[in-house]
Amino acid sequence: MKTVYLIGGAMGVGKTTVSQQLKKDLANSVFLDGDWCWDADPFQVTDETKEMVMDNICYLLNNFLHCSAYENVIFCWVMHEQSIVDEIVSKLDTEECRVIKISLIVDEANLRKRLLSDIANKIRTEEIMDKSIARIQMYQVLDTVKIDTSNKSVYEITEEIAAL
To answer: What's the superkingdom here (predicted)?
Structure first.
């Protein structure tokens, strides 16, 4: 049986880093970052682009699910609303799969530290700080497994996920 890991969290919580390590830790794994499905300049949020990114994500995830080479499909994206998680799950062929929905959470101090490091390294811009901090609490109400990443190594986090 395949396993699909849907990993959400605020910007800067460590979704991509954790997912990349999880891909290495789990046998026969493939990883998709939702940001790769909507990497545009200028970045435009419209009804059309939101529909497009969901189509892109679900198309790719279903292709991974249908490919016999993969046992573990890892997907990460912000997914700050239950409707986003539900829409993705509803469009996936999960009849022969176990779906694990995860929210990576973090305290404000740790998130600030991570984002400031990313800003200093020119990975992110300053306007992301307030937006990301404002979303921290949104993950508490989602129907997901919560994994607190505060003061934990990537390996500790991936061990928690692999044990689910």
So the answer is: Bacteria
H helical segments located in 26-150: 47-66, 82-90, 108-120, 128-135
Sheet of strand 145-148, all strands in order from the earlier edge strand to the far edge: 29-33, 72-76, 2-9, 97-105, 145-148
- Report d(CA 46, CA 18) in Å as an integer: 29
What residues contact residue 28 under an 8 Å CB cut-off, 6+ apart? 69, 70, 71, 72
Domain with 126, as residue range(s), is 2-162
Q: What's the predicted TM-score (pTM) here?
A: 0.95
Q: What is the pLDDT of residue 137?
A: 94
Confidence of residue 4 (pLDDT cuts 50, 70, 90): very high
Name residue 51's beta-bridge partners: none
